[in-house]
UniProtKB/TrEMBL annotation:
GO terms for cellular component: plasma membrane. The chain crosses the membrane at residues 630-655. It comes from Populus alba (White poplar). Its EC number is 2.7.11.1. Its main location: membrane. InterPro entries: Kinase-like_dom_sf, Leu-rich_rpt, Leu-rich_rpt_typical-subtyp, LRR_dom_sf, LRR_N_plant-typ, LRR_R13L4/SHOC2-like, Plant_RL_S/T_kinase, Prot_kinase_dom. Belongs to the RLP family. This is non-specific serine/threonine protein kinase. Residues 864-897 are annotated as: Disordered. Residues 1-26 form the signal peptide.
Length: 897
């Protein structure tokens, strides 16, 4: 039968084959359902997955699950409030083609488990809390056409493997924390249509020229991506490009000419870069909708070809250095809504047809050098929200189209030469919030009613006149009212004091009269009040002190009189000026400081309770009888005189005691003689006069004293800071006694000393016309010493050389004291001195060793070495007294006999 009907045979075979595939590829129904239930449990059973229950129908009907041939191929779990991580067992869903976890609260690193989905075409992990880097191996998803990782916290580099996903059409990596590099291999994605890498902290990088090979790319968004360098010139070959956003980078150089030749280009954002040069003058991108080249360094003129862009709705060229005129053809663009050219060097008139053929919404041409009038048809379409044209050279009257322009929110035309009256309808424009028309030549009067939405009104430096009259509640939302330097007259209306939201009120330099209303307690928000240079009179109302936020108060150059309210001291203004009025009395005590010294100038009746710059001191006369004040004054004067006399007496006593201490009589000196003297103490003390002074220093003075008419001595007087203690005095006398026993040709003989409470005297032999330096280094004396020791500075080296050669050093000893009993002792002391002055510090003996040698407890036998012999194996080098030396000599003679 089957052989006779081959068609039936083929159908039967196909059915068997499909049945086989159905059992071979798809996972068992129960296994996939179990995986989904495990996922739900892993995510702590979010309420968005409540319908995932085993008792329900097939899992293919569960929310977020789509199946093909009874197997899960799509897991669409976006915006399900899923927390936690993506578990590894999700990879058991082998047939997934679409995986969407966007807009959840998933954490952790990039889930590498998704690399197991070999059939995956769409992967969306956007708007979660993933961290770390994108691991290599992402190119294993060879079928992937859509990859969205935006709005996470990924860091590091974008892996080059992304450039090896051949089917990729959409790549969203924007709004992450990438801080490495992006690969040029992305330029090999020949099917790529959308590339978003904006708002990342990449390392400074140039825009790869390989990106210009993306011929199918429609959208390139790399704003705030740390791009540097120039825009590749080949960018004009990206023929499919519709949206190019390279804004907020540091791109330099000029705009490539080919960029405005792209036929499909609709949106061009190059704002906030460092681009320079001219805007390409040939423009063929006729489909352009928005062009924003603002905040660069562009020069030259605005291309006339911009007038051909009939679809253009937004043109932003502000904050550049463009010059020349605005092409008139731009004013006739039918779709133009936003026109922003402020802060350039543009000149000439504004295109007169601007707003006539389009529903213009934003008009900003401030800070240029434009002349002429504002275009008449600005609000012709009824959609204008703002007119910003301040700081130009515009003039004439305001256009009539602004009179009934209820769409207006802001009018800022200050610092021009406009004149005439403000259109009545402009004051009351339904949605008008800001009207800033200062520094013009406007005339007329303020209206009784304004727009109820008006919060900021600045009309200073014009020629408005008449009185300020406010009616109804139309002014109730006013926050700032600046009307300085006009010609307003009349009084300050009471209604003006009832504006609860007012923070700044400037009415200075007008002709206002009358008193300042006291009913101002509703000005609770007021921070600045300036009514100076008017003709206001009366007293300053104390209610001003109740304004809690007042920081600046200027009422100067008026005719205010009376006293300053003491309550005003409760305020702590940063600026206060009440000068040039007729105020009298004492200023509040809180203002008696340098910060407010200039706040009360030219008020002759003003004073302060204490001396202040520019203010006189108040002298108040008590109302009581002078019978009580005169005795009190006398008592105070007597007390002051008594205190002065006591202080004078105390000073006299101190001076007298000090003088006596410094001028003691001779009987208070204690003299100690070391030799037989031929002069007396009085000879020394009487010679301590300034006429005998021969030298002075930090510790005392030296006098030349003729002691007894023939002999002359040198007396050094050393001052004490305080009287000597007995212990210190004994130590001083002991040291001086030792000094007196020294006998040497180069040391002046100390004859005696004297001690008192305040000073000490040292009496020496007088060496006439000589000094120690001259004696040591210049003078020549004849003696019996060897010629080799004429220069004392080489004595130590000479002695060392003699000692090393085994020679005696007796030649260096004084003949007058060279006796046999002293030669050895003197030689040893001399050699000890040689040791102590060794050129090698390590060879010098310690002080303890020196003392042991001097007391006979050690003996240096070899130069540079130390004897370790017995403690008492040598004779002491120094004897304690002459008697000891004599006894030793006698014993030596006796032993010889």
């Amino acid at each position: 039968m089957l052989k006779k009907n081959p068609i039936m045979f083929s159908l039967h075979f196909l059915a068997l084959f499909l049945l086989f595939l159905d059992h071979a590829n798809p996972q068992p129904h129960d296994q996939e359902q179990a995986i989904l239930l495990r996922l739900k449990q892993h995510w702590q059973n979010p309420s968005s997955l409540d319908r995932w229950t085993p008792s329900s129908s097939s899992h293919c009907t569960w929310p977020g699950v789509a199946c093909t041939n009874n197997s899960i191929t799509q897991l669409l779990l976006d915006n399900k409030n899923i927390p936690g991580t993506i578990p590894p067992f999700i990879s058991d869903l082998k047939n997934l083609e679409v995986l969407n976890f966007s807009n959840n609260s998933i954490i952790g690193k990039f889930p590498e488990v998704v690399y197991n989905f070999s059939k995956l075409e769409i992967l969306d992990l956007s708007q979660n809390y993933f961290v770390g880097t994108i691991p290599d191996g992402i190119d294993s998803l060879s079928r992937l056409s859509y990859l969205n990782l935006c709005a996470n916290n990924f860091t590091g580099n974008i892996p080059a493997a992304i450039g090896r996903i051949p089917e990729l059409r959409t790549l969203y990596l924007h709004n992450n924390l990438f801080n490495g590099t992006f690969p040029a291999e992305i330029g090999k994605l020949s099917k790529l249509e959308e590339l978003y890498m904006a708002h990342n902290g990449f390392l400074p990088s140039k825009l790869p020229s390989s990106f210009t090979q993306l011929k199918k790319l429609r959208v390139l968004w790399m704003s705030e991506a740390n791009l540097i360098g120039e825009i590749p010139q080949m960018i004009g070959e990206m023929v499919a490009l519709e949206h190019l956003d390279l804004s907020m980078n540091e791109l330099t150089g000029s705009i490539p000419n080919g960029l405005f030749m792209l036929k499909n280009l609709k949106v061009l954002f190059l704002y906030k870069n460092l681009l320079s040069g001219q805007i390409p003058q040939v423009v063929e991108a006729l489909n352009s909708i928005v062009i924003d080249l603002s905040q660069n360094n562009l020069t030259g003129t605005i291309p006339v070809d911009f007038g051909k862009l009939d679809k253009l709705s937004g043109l932003s060229l502000f904050l550049n250095q463009l010059s020349g005129k605005i092409p008139e053809s731009i004013g006739r663009l039918p779709a133009l809504k936003e026109f922003r050219l402020f802060s350039n060097n543009l000149s000439g008139p504004i295109p007169p047809d601007l707003g006539r053929y389009s529903s213009l919404e934003g008009f900003q041409v401030a800070s240029n050098r434009l002349t002429g009038n504002l275009p008449e048809y600005l609000c012709h379409g009824g959609s204008l929200t703002g007119v910003v044209a301040f700081d130009n050279k515009l003039g004439g009257e305001l256009p009539k189209s602004l009179e009934n322009c209820n769409s207006l929110l802001t009018v800022r035309i200050s610092n021009n030469a406009f004149f005439g009256n403000i259109p009545v309808g402009l004051w009351t424009a339904l949605n008008l919030q800001q009207l800033m028309i200062s520094d013009n030549l406007f005339t007329g009067e303020l209206p009784n009613e304004v727009s109820t939405s008006l919060s900021l009104l600045e009309i200073s430096n014009n020629k408005f006149s008449g009185s300020i009259s406010i009616e109804g509640n139309s002014w109730r939302n006013l926050v700032v009212f600046k009307a300085s330097n006009n010609q307003f007259t009349g009084t300050i209306p009471l209604e003006l004091t009832a504006l609860p939201n007012l923070t700044v009120l400037l009415l200075d330099k007008n002709q206002l009269t009358g008193a300042l209303p006291s009913d101002i307690i509703s000005w609770k928000s007021l921070t600045t009040l300036n009514l100076s240079q008017n003709q206001l009179s009366g007293q300053i109302p104390e209610e001003i002190a109740t304004l809690p936020h007042l920081l600046e108060l200027d009422l100067s150059e008026n005719q205010f009189s009376g006293q300053i309210p003491p309550q005003l001291g409760l305020l702590r203004p940063t600026y206060l000026n009440l000068s040039s009025n007729h105020l009298v009395g004492k200023i509040p005590a809180e203002y008696e400081n340098a910060a407010y010294s200039s706040s009360f100038l030219n008020n002759p009746g003003i004073c302060a309770s204490r001396p202040l710059q520019y203010l006189k001191v108040c002298f108040s006369r008590p109302q009581k009888s002078s019978k009580t004040s005169i005795p009190l004054l006398a008592l105070i004067l007597s007390a002051l005189i008594t205190a002065f006399l006591l202080a004078l007496l105390f000073a006299f006593i101190i001076i007298r005691v000090h003088w006596k201490r410094n001028h003691r009589s001779d009987s208070e000196w204690k003299f100690i003689n070391f030799h037989r003297l031929n002069f007396t103490e009085s000879n020394i003390l009487s010679g301590l006069t300034e006429s005998n002074l021969i030298g002075s220093g930090g510790s005392g003075k030296v006098y030349r004293v003729a002691a007894n008419g023939s002999s002359v001595v040198a007396v050094k007087r050393i001052w004490n800071n305080r009287p000597l203690e007995k212990k210190l005095e004994k130590e001083f006398l002991a040291e001086v006694e030792i000094l007196s026993t020294i006998r040497h040709l180069n040391i002046v003989k100390l004859l005696c000393c004297a001690v008192s409470d305040n000073s000490k005297l040292l009496v020496y032999e007088y060496l006439m016309n000589h000094s120690l330096d001259q004696w040591l280094h210049t003078a020549r004396r004849s003696n019996s010493a060897s010629a080799s020791v004429n220069h004392h500075t080489g004595l130590a080296k000479w002695a060392l050389r003699h000692m090393q050669e085994g020679k005696t050093i007796v030649d260096a000893l004084d003949e007058e004291i060279t006796e046999p009993c002293y030669v050895d002792e003197m030689s040893n002391v001399f050699l000890l001195g040689v040791f102590c002055t060794s050129e090698v510090p390590s060879a010098r003996p310690h002080m303890k060793e020196v003392l042991q040698i001097l007391h006979g407890r050690n003996h240096p036998l070899v130069y540079g070495a130390k004897n370790n012999g017995s403690e008492y194996d040598s004779t002491p080098l120094l004897k304690n007294s002459k008697r000891e030396r004599q006894s030793e000599s006698d014993s030596t003679l006796a032993s010889d006999n």
